[in-house]
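Batch job 17 of 40 flagged for manual review because the log was empty.
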Amino acid sequence: MTSAINPPTEELTPFPDHTQLPESDGTFVKNWQEHPQSVLLTDSIQPILQQRHPDGHYCIGQDLGIYWRITDPPERGAQAPDWFYVPNVPPTLDGLTRRSYVLWRELIAPLIVLEFVSGDGQEERDNTPSTGKFWIYEQVIRPAFYGIYEVSKASVEVYHLIEGQYQILAANERGHYPITPLGVELGIWQGQYQNVELPWLRWWDLQGNLLLTGYERVEQERQRAERLAAQLRALGVEPED
């Protein structure tokens, strides 16, 4: 079994950091839906992460490179998940926003990595040693959870790293996949987001309550206030502004 590259000592091997490695290989986003999907996941989970990390020490990557080996050119040594979360790392490094996530510098693996399928899903499930995306996540980067989301099939597969191997998770009674260390469930939500009706990938809490975006929370509060005002008017009481 291959493990993540060991951190070099500065005196012996001046390995590059995130400021010295390319932040992009110059390719376009494969799927127009990838950006709003990433924003939806990030926006709705923020309250959970703020509770779990009152010091603000966590990192979310959206199509951000995870460097796991030195290659020529350098970008061949990176995977760029569509979305990932790393606990217990500072939000910036030396006052700089991360351009990439460099395993030999950061040392902490992501808790969860998510890939959004644009083709037939073979790339996300490729287990070819040293080159396959599934193999690299399982054997080197080693996030505890790996999810493969296919909007065309309205489905998500979630794998859990157990004793060094990915085991596919079974859905619970709600059709969701518990990400217990994060205190959430992951699943498919059919609805409208950014003016588009799709089977979106979303979070729920462990009681099955949908985690709302900032806009949804504001709208929920507005509707609650309107209902309360209507009830007061029905009782002959004019609500205060």
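Reviewer: the log was empty due to a logging misconfiguration, but the result itself is present. Helices lie at 34-52, 103-106, 133-141, 214-234. Unflagging and moving on to job 18.
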